[in-house]
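Supplementary Data S3. Sequence and structure tokens for construct A.
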Amino acid sequence: MNHHQEFFKRRRAGILLHPTSLPNTPGNGDLGEHAYRFLDFLADTGITVWQMLPLGPPHGDLSPYQTQSIHAANPLLISLERLVGQKWLSIDSSPPTQFEEATAYRYQRLKEARLGFAQQATSAERDAYTDFLAKQATWIEDYALYRALKQESQGAPWWQWDRGLRDRDAQALAKAKLRLAATIEQNRFEQFIFYLQWQDLKHYAHVLGIYLFGDIPIFVAEDSVEVWAGRENFLLDHQGRPTVVAGVPPDYFSATGQRWGNPHYNWEHLQATGFRWWKERLHSAQQYFDLIRIDHFRGFEACWQIPNHCPTAMEGKWVKVPGEALFQELQKTVTLPLVAEDLGIITDEVIRLRDKFGLPGMRILQFAFDSNAENPYLPHNHTQNSVIYTGTHDNNTTLGWFQALPVPVQQYVCEYLHCPPYEMPWPLIEAAFASCGILTVIPMQDILSADASQRMNTPSTCNDSNWRWRFRWEQLPAGVNDKLRHLAKFYGRA
């Protein structure tokens, strides 16, 4: 893929920070002034990549990896401040700070913005809206209706809706569209506003020479518009429930494996339609990002299929997938450089698939120190076509990780990195910059030397702190810009 070679021609460094983690706005970070300030911070330090998690509208658990739509964006990321600047919203001097209240407040303010748009928008802005809806026609009507029905049913999953709506009976849908017209229009409008704000942010990033790095989960949530409106793309029974679900087999981390519960694709159908579904998915990503990480890449070679009635992942089996045919087809239309998330148990077949299309894999430094000199995550074993991380959103912060290690392992880490323990996490950050890997990405928590209390997510747990982490500008250590700028220059990544 030539666009890969173009982007990966030179060494670069990035920071991983989801926009929800930006500071100082009600409930969660958004695309307002702090997003621009973050881009300025990156530009000042010589860092040219901003990596983030999937942008879709999450469910109540806030996980960006199980969203209500793979095409739509989370409306809570819309900057209200910028809508005030456009005169579509009045100033409010006392927004709530508590997360739950702030979420309701944001949605209420977005409703006010739609009224403001109706009254104030110029004819050019109205034309832009019409144009946006035409360009997103493959998904936006189903999404706007799904969200409206979900709200009407107090958030119930689509398979619990009245049968006519569940099974998309034409008459039931026509009635719902009339009944819920205002909510449907609100959902369309929110996507338009997000798109406008994102394009402004992306333009600013490009002016500064910064690339936006997105993330695509391989699977979609069962409770999503894609499964409700496109059952033929998944392995489902006559009521729309999955016959088999996704996960990973038992391994070193879990004796029963992981049962994720996502429906599996009907690959036969996807292939028969020229993988149109996947092309549309990547087309959406292409509007927002300059490069994309594909999560659980090994699932494009073979997937672990678990019968839906099984409570754990133990009874699953590997089922082959036409990944090679898919990527050959995507090559024709997709111009995004792709990165393969190739963590976990990776077979020769998966490596062959990744290498055939020249996709960089991932190396996580926190996985490197098991006292085995052959460990592929150790810097001396890295390859150039790799993206190097200290840790990811699913890992502890590097300081938290180091503090939790047994003392002999801490000593081994320090001996390998030639550093005293009190300097962590910076020696690991420097090892990532020094690696021969073409791109290195450091989570923002590590730049702040944050401890375990500030991790983004603890996998397989449902606690209130997951996905809610936010930083504060005053957490930036003194001189950190100079330090990063030095590392970026010193290791040829500026």
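Construct B, processed identically:
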Amino acid sequence: MRRLQQFSRTHQVGRAQPLSLDDVARDVLGLTRGHWQDGARARGVSIEVEHRLAGATTVQGDAAALREAVINLVLNAVDAMPKGGRLMVQTRIDGDHAVLVVADTGTGMSETVRLKAHEPFFTTKGVKATGLGLSVAYGIVRSHGGQLSLDSTEGRGTTVTLTLPRAVAPHPAATAPAPLRPGALRLLLVDDEDEVREALAEMLQSHGHTVLTAAGADEALARLETEPDLDLVLTDLVMPGRTGWDVAAGVKARRPHLPVGLITGWGETTDVDEARRAMVDFVVDKPVTVEALQEAVARVRER
């Protein structure tokens, strides 16, 4: 039911702002790393990832929605390469339009499958799949006044092309901060990867939350000492030096009742003892989506 509701919302775009498709591409590759790198390695295969970004790819749109569309395309591409392969994410300028391309060297589609691929619930992945990945992307792109095209050959891979109208970015101007929505939280987000941290912060801020950030465990625990009014700490698990478990332990030692959420990649919490698990209040799997974050944050609000 949740995925059906998600599909029904794909034509409803949030507040449109100038954004770069290059930034969308970088964010998505960071958010999906657990699948195309860690997940592939866990299966004993290798997926080579290449990105070519053109610059000046500013469009008017909802960054969170466009990220979701491209995440769906990247995950589809990874699923289509069970034996490994090559994933290309590229941006370019085409006259008055900015273009983002996701291409893979995977199993590809027959002509019959390709013609049905935009239909909701149509899937080549078996009975357990929702079949909504490409349909979600298609709806989001159309709601931005753009086009999504699909080029695929069975056994030779798939290329999906998003084409959106270009926009001229306005000059920076001072604006008053948006008022907090009811139930909005003040939270600390911890992640060592700049692009991922910024993307997650933007997701949360777009839903009215106040987000403070830290690039590692030491910085996070230092900020904890100067921020008495936090409602939540959200931390990546795998970071250089001290990990998300160290962040959770430090938080609970200082403020036992402050909730801690853990962001994890492929299989990172499978061999963890109960004592460590007890230090975190919830886990969000990568790639992180707005929907998953909102569900986790809602559980914190209800306490």
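The domain at 186-301 is CATH 3.40.50.2300 (Rossmann fold). Residues 59 and 180 are 27 Å apart (CA to CA).
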